[in-house]
Amino acid sequence: MFRAEARIMPREERTMYFNEDHDALRATVSRFVSRELNPRLDEWEAAAQAPLHDIFKQMGDLGFLGIRYDPAWGGQGLDYWFDTVFLEELGHIQGVGLQGAIADQTHMATPALHEFGSDHLKETWLRPALSGDMVAAIAVTEPDAGSDVSALKTRARKDGDAYVINGSKRFITNGVQADFIVLLARTSDEPGYHAFSLLVVPKDTPGFSVSKKLDKVGWRCSDTAELFFDEARVPAENLIGREGEGFIYQMKQFQHERFAALPMTYVAARDMIDLTVDYIRQRTVFGKPLITRQVLRHRLVDWLTDIECLKQLTYHIVRLKTAGTDATREISMAKLMSGGLARRVSDGCLQMFGGMGYKNETLISRYWRDSRAASIAGGADEVMSDVIARLEGF
Ligand SMILES: Cc1cc2nc3c(=O)[nH]c(=O)nc-3n(C[C@H](O)[C@H](O)[C@H](O)COP(=O)(O)OP(=O)(O)OC[C@H]3O[C@@H](n4cnc5c(N)ncnc54)[C@H](O)[C@@H]3O)c2cc1C
Q1: Where are the alpha helices (DSSP H) in 283-372?
Q2: Which one of 47, 124, 203, 317 has the fewest CB atoms closer than 10 angstroms to its CB?
Q3: 118 CA distance to ligand 1 middle (Å)
Q4: 248-391 domain in CATH 3.30.750.24?
Q5: Residue closest by Cα to atom 42 of ligand 1
Q6: From-to residues of CATH 1.10.540.10 in the chain
Q7: CB of 254 closer than 6 A to ligand 1?
Q8: Does residue 178 contact residue 49 with C-beta atoms inside 8 Å?
Q9: Using CA atoms, how far apart are residues 135 and 149, in angstroms rounded to an integer?
């Protein structure tokens, strides 16, 4: 059985970007993934849900959930290189659904709360999210608004010292188990991007319900929900930052989400290749191990080359972020590249397994199912292309 282990860095990367402190974090996360998560993935996939409260509590105790966040709220206060190490090791989780569920907590639902939330919101919601005492979710997508976020209809009406929410959300990762939702809702009828706000909605808010748990092709261990709001009343102090700025905050938050996908994707793709090489070394067809076939070896090398390109683009993004430079263009390019890469490698690797690859019990089939979402979730490929085209001025 294939086991995920911390890959030894090429020497130049080890010295250029990572030191012994990064190695220590890498080893700790790697140990956690291989001992606490991977042995139970089959069980969680079958149950169509991983026990996020248990998993996040363990991760919170180990200091994994707030790598870059302010220590004042329970974070580790570390830089983007540590974040990259953490995400690379999450990439070894043998189920992209669980990778997504964890990244939801660390990079999707909490960045805006950390950057723009009041001290009260941080104390009440961010701190327990970082300690693993609460599960968070981000709710943007709706039945009639996915790629076009500005088409969303869920409304938060100001009523005295509260917002009253009506509407619905769809495809919300961790939505079934979440203790609170970070919600993007319309707070004004004015046209333009200043009509939206981000609000924290606690799960026990009267009028808020999980209307459905969705049955998905892949990401089976990740719960994905439809949410419903019927006159759901939350205190006005649950507003993150300023009213009318939620769209802008969410666009920034998307950059964290898309960045998180990158290390997890190139590491998982490399794991798929290792898994496949192990198999085709021992699989003999027409009298020779499959690994001796040049056509297959060249295919593997093409993918390794793409993986290296995505990794180096990611490291470039980390350098840009570290320098405080906007990296939206590069993140969009890398996200676009990563979707295609995940799909190409998982599909090609499954092909090399032949019929064995098409069995549910063979791990590569899970990667194949899971990888399909890489070109849809967090901004579909076509949306990334549109962003890049706009930034290029055409
Ligand atoms: C596994 C998974 C987890 C998710 N988790 C969350 C979550 O936690 N929170 C959340 O809010 N959302 C979540 N989503 C939703 C996700 O963000 C949306 O699915 C995504 O943004 C696409 O929106 P849509 O599905 O409505 O597709 P649509 O917007 O209906 O688009 C359909 C297709 O048309 C393409 N398209 C759209 N516009 C154009 C155009 N102008 N030109 C050419 N093609 C175009 C799209 O790229 C897509 O391929 C998740 C989705 C998945 C699959």
Answers
A1: 294-322, 328-353, 363-371
A2: 47
A3: 30
A4: no
A5: 382
A6: 11-131
A7: no
A8: no
A9: 24
> What's the CATH fold of domain 11-131?
Butyryl-Coa Dehydrogenase, subunit A; domain 1 (1.10.540)
Kindly give the distance from the C-alpha atom of residue 380 to the centroid of ligand 1, in angstroms, as a whole number.
6
Q: Does the beta carbon of 349 lie inside 6 Å of ligand 1?
A: no
Q: How far apart are alpha carbons 262 and 374 in whole angstroms?
A: 10
Structure token digits, residue 255 = 């950059």
- How do the pLDDT tens digits run along the chain, 394 residues long? 333 344 556 666 767 899 999 999 999 999 999 999 999 999 999 999 999 999 999 999 999 999 999 999 999 999 999 999 999 999 999 999 999 999 999 999 999 999 999 999 999 999 999 999 999 999 999 999 999 999 999 999 999 999 999 999 999 999 999 999 999 999 999 999 999 999 999 999 999 999 999 999 999 999 999 999 999 999 999 999 999 999 999 999 999 999 999 999 999 999 999 999 999 999 999 999 999 999 999 999 999 999 999 999 999 999 999 999 999 999 999 999 999 999 999 999 999 999 999 999 999 999 999 999 999 999 999 999 999 999 999 9
CATH 1.20.140.10 domain span(s) along the chain? 248-391
| DSSP calls for 120-153 | HHIIIIIHHHHHTSS-EEEE--BTTBSS-GGG--
173 lines ligand 1 (CB under 6 A): yes
The finding on whether 147 has its CB within 6 A of some atom of ligand 1 is: yes
Catalytic residue among 257, 308, 361, 392: 257
* CATH fold of the domain at 136-243: Butyryl-CoA Dehydrogenase, subunit A; domain 2 (2.40.110)
Please name which of 361, 360, 341, 189 lies closest in space to residue 267, comparing C-alpha atoms.
341
pTM of this prediction?
0.96
Cα 249 from chain centre: 18
CB atoms within 10 A of CB 369: 21
Q: 238 exposed, middle or buried (CB, 10 Å; 0-12, 13-18, 19+)?
A: buried
